[in-house]
Fold this protein.
Amino acid sequence: MRCPFCAHDDSQVKDSRPTEDNTAIRRRRQCDSCGARFTTFERVQLREITVVKSDGSRESFDRSKIEQSVALACRKRGIGQERLDQLVSGVQRQIETLGDPEIEAKAIGQMVMDGLRGLDSVAYIRFASVYREFAEAKDFEEFAGNVRDAGQE
Ligand SMILES: [Zn+2]
């Protein structure tokens, strides 16, 4: 890493530790030439993650799209915004943890479904009905029935 003070090309890492929220690594560096100390942060660049859609088209990862679809599924279900934010952050963290530059849209959809399943069964069914491409109405009824059965256990 180039020194920001004297532009010398090398610096040494003196200390390396995760930030408090564990979303970045903070490194204390010292320039080999002038001895200046500076700090760098290493974090995931989600904008560089590409989402591959089912038709093969690609787009940049956009957290707000997940927020919108989750908000839509949870509409009028009386779930606090904080819980929704937690769910979306959880999905984002899972994507970060994978560390791949590309992720399939259906994998993200599955993560959201997993999150909604534990949160609210109606929101889960709503989201799943959009996300899953049900071939026929009876496929959806069967799926919704399974969810209801699971909810009664
Ligand atoms: Zn320097």
Notes: The chain has a mean pLDDT of 85. The longest strand covers residues 11-18.
